[in-house]
């Protein structure tokens, strides 16, 4: 190392040591630098990642007599161990419970889900949360993954049916084996 660089490192080291000595005398500074980040991480981790380790309650508004596609989606949601489905008869009752924070979130399945998909279109599964609070991101992600998984299965069955000449129902039945 050149002598001017060594002197620069000595100066930088002296500045670091002086700041650490000053910080060691400042108890408030130590709390905010050391303790507060750990507490923040713990609080966010316990509140946002389902700290209880159990399943999230998820309100579900579905048609009274669901078609095969809707039933497939309901079964996939019920099979997800991180979700506990709470059925509702109407959107208003579910939304009221979400706003009262009795539920972290809820979803609404369209009544004509199978018809929309059979027509080649998409269908929207609405996710309801309280706008004044944040539903855990992991909950939203879990629901989105389940819905996307069912959607991928339906698209794959449709492609298989088109290419093989069998019915879409037969292709879907083959995925259940």
End-to-end Cα distance: 70 Å
Q: Tell me about the biggest sheet?
A: 4 strands, mixed
Q: How helix-rich are the residues, as a percent range?
A: 55-70%
Q: Tell me the β content.
A: 5-15%
The order of strands across the largest sheet is: 2-1-3-4
Order of helices and strands: HHEHEHEHEHH
Low-confidence stretches: none
Which outline best applies? Answer: elongated
Cα-atom Rg, whole angstroms? 27 Å
Count helical runs.
7
Main structural class = alpha/beta
Average pLDDT over all residues: 82
- The count of DSSP E runs of length 2 or more, i.e. the number of strands, is 4
Describe this structure in words.
Helices cover 61% and strands 11% of the residues. It has 177 residues and is α/β, with parallel strands linked by helices. It has a four-stranded mixed beta sheet with strand order 2-1-3-4, sandwiched between helices. The radius of gyration is 27 Å and the shape is elongated. The mean pLDDT is 82.
Précis, in short:
This protein is α/β, with parallel strands linked by helices. 61% of the residues lie in helices and 11% in strands. The termini are far apart.
């Amino acid at each position: 190392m050149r002598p001017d660089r060594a002197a620069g490192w000595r100066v930088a080291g002296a500045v670091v040591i002086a700041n650490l000595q000053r910080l060691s005398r400042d108890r408030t500074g130590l709390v905010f630098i050391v303790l507060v980040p750990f507490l923040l991480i713990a609080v966010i981790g316990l509140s946002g990642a389902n700290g209880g380790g159990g399943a999230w309650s998820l309100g579900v508004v579905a048609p009274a007599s669901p078609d095969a596609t809707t039933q497939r989606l309901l079964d996939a949601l019920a099979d997800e161990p991180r979700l506990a489905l709470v059925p509702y008869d109407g959107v208003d009752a579910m939304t009221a419970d979400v706003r009262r924070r009795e539920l972290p979130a809820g979803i609404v399945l369209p009544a004509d889900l199978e018809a929309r998909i059979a027509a080649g279109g998409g269908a929207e599964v609405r996710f309801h949360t309280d706008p004044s609070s944040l539903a855990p991101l992991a909950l939203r992600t879990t629901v989105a993954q389940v819905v996307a998984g069912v959607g991928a299965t339906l698209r794959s069955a449709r492609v298989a049916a088109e290419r093989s000449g069998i019915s879409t129902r037969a292709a879907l039945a083959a995925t259940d084996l």
